[in-house]
Specification:
With 196 residues, this protein is mainly beta. The chain has no helices and 23 strands. Strands 5-4-3-8-11-14-17-20-23 form a 9-stranded mixed beta sheet, with no helix packed on it. Strands 1-6-9-12-15-18-21 form a 7-stranded parallel beta sheet, with no helix packed on it. A 7-stranded parallel beta sheet has the order 2-7-10-13-16-19-22, with no helix packed on it. β3 and β4 form a beta hairpin.
Length: 196
């Protein structure tokens, strides 16, 4: 059981933010704990702002039973909140009541406000994603429910030769996902757009 709550991280350097990895937990750049695989993880009411060009907001890798709630990510070099499975899929995540804005604005085109990547059984709800390159991205994931999110003005173009700017991106390797009651507007330079 891990609880990360009520922290403020600002003006970070490369790879600053909250990183939850299979063998350590980084808050900022300092490892704080060792674990074989994170389970029963709660990341609640944290603020991560002004991360450097390749710094992330909240990043969870290969974990189970995850709650990411009430966090604020602003001016993040890459993705604001990312739940990812790499060696072993992440499972059972709730990402709710977060605000991710101005993420992925000065490094890579393929980052987002919230990114659910190779994760199964996730609920993404009541979040606000705005002013990012991509608002919400779901890739390689199964049984994700996205509901009641406000996704707007995600039109930041990072690389002019690859102008990927979208409200929601759903990769073809994702299965059995539901998107319902989301508010999606003024993305992709003025047009609601979802790439499937």
């Amino acid at each position: 059981n891990i609880l990360i709550k009520n922290n403020t991280l600002t003006d970070g350097q490369k790879k600053e933010g909250i990183d939850i990895l299979p063998h350590h937990i980084d808050i900022g750049r300092h490892a704080t704990s060792e674990s074989a695989r994170c389970s029963n993880l709660r990341i609640i009411n944290n603020s991560v702002t002004n991360a450097a060009s390749k710094g992330g907001g909240i990043y969870v890798l290969d974990a189970d039973n995850i709650i990411v709630r009430g966090n604020y990510c602003n001016k993040i070099g890459v993705t604001g909140i990312q739940i990812e499975g790499f060696r072993d899929r992440s499972r059972y995540a709730i990402v709710e009541d977060n605000i991710c804005e101005n993420c992925s604005i000065d490094s890579y085109w393929d980052e987002a406000g919230i990114w659910i990547d190779d994760t199964d059984y996730a609920v993404v709800q009541n979040n606000m994603c705005r002013y990012n390159s991509i608002g919400l991205w779901v890739s390689g994931s199964k049984n994700v429910i996205s509901r009641n999110n406000c996704i707007y003005e995600n039109n930041q173009i990072v690389l002019s030769h690859y102008p990927l700017s979208r409200g929601i991106v759903i990769n073809g390797d994702s299965e059995d996902n539901i998107f319902v009651h989301n508010t999606i507007y003024r993305n992709a330079n003025g047009h609601p757009h979802a790439q499937i």
